[in-house]
């Protein structure tokens, strides 16, 4: 297929079009530079960050997302502070794709910007760069008055996976914003410290069901999560089936033998997702007392439930055979 | 594939006022996996040449000016 973009012989050709009077022509040239994948295009794109047309600046922000590194990040931070929200949003999205840790130098100063959106965008961008010197500003940002900024700061800390950040994360369990508490619980998953598992366990009683759901899921991933087996079993009576589902998954992952009966009682729930998860968990635990519950759903209307039930019955049979031999 | 005779009845509708295909843009044509979009020789704008669509959406999502709209049938939403 022929494409007008192919008519650009080199970057200078596209660069010439960047000076066109028509904003649409400038946009097309910017798209071509972005598609070129040539790192030399970054310098040409950087010249366009002050274009009078917001649509053109938005296109520059999107095109710079095709690149990585300090030069492209330097141009994008100028667009992140753009007064037009469409431009700033495009810049934030592009910066979030960056992976080169060197890019952090250009982004870090914006963590203290006056506008919450800019601070949020900067922290979001720093997350995947995983640079150790971003820990301090991220910890400071946990005190930000804007909850969305605090959530992004937790993201930076969570990606760094440093045990020294655990006290700050556990303190967030009392944050007034549920999204912040939920993010903090999620970020504690990696920790080997007992206080992390204890904090996640406390979150199983949070007033917000999404925090409880995240806590139930995170305990299944935490190395010390097994200490919360009984609180997780108590979660099987939660008013939200979503919380019960994650609790069942974690109990199955931990292979908690005394959870078979409480899980088994969830296997006839009206939600097919819950039945499916219960069958899978009973298969993970592979205890013979799970068999009568699995037989109940062997002919379930949902094929995924039937599939998991058959797999679970096979797991129990194999486990019993191993124990007998 | 059936030719799209009436542009108003096809799933992918292009707003000519916003489309910048006449300036050299071919994003929607390039991203379409079914290759059903074309640039009109008469208007210089993009249009749906063949009435076949997977409703995969990149033409709408990637259009730099927001000129493309994909009308997803109610039963597929």
UniProtKB/TrEMBL annotation, chain B:
InterPro entries listed in its UniProt record: 4Fe4S_Fe-S-bd, 4Fe4S_Fe_S_CS
Record keywords, A-Z: Iron, Iron-sulfur, Metal-binding
Protein name (database record): Putative ferredoxin
Pfam families per UniProt: Fer4_7
Natural source organism: Bradyrhizobium oligotrophicum S58
Keyword Iron: yes
Gene Ontology MF terms: iron-sulfur cluster binding; metal ion binding
Residue ranges of domain 4Fe-4S ferredoxin-type in the record: 10-42, 44-73
Listed SUPFAM superfamilies: 4Fe-4S ferredoxins
Keyword DNA repair: no
Source species, domain of life: Bacteria
Secretion signal span: none
